[in-house]
Amino acid sequence: MPQAESTEDQIMALIDKLPPTRRRLVLLALAKDAAAGRDERMQRAQGELRRLAHDRGLDWDRMTEDEREALADDLTHEDRECSS
Question: Alpha helix locations (H) across 1-84?
Fold first, then answer.
C-alpha cells in the first residue's frame, strides 16, 4: 500500500515546481518570519537575563559586555558559584 506524502514533502514539491523568482519570494517570506521569531526570542531572553542579573544584585543595563558574558558563563555552569 503506498504511503501518503507528508505535508512538508508536498510543500517542497510545490516549491520545486516554482520558477526561480517565485522561489525567491517564498524564501524571503520564510526569512522574514524567522527574523521576527528570532527578535521575539531575543527580547524574552534579554528580559530573563535582566531578571537573573537583578536577582544577583547586578544591573544588566550598566554591565559591560565582558560582565554580561561572565554572568552568562556563570549561569551556564551551575556546578560552580557565580563569580559576580
Answer: 7-17, 20-55, 65-76
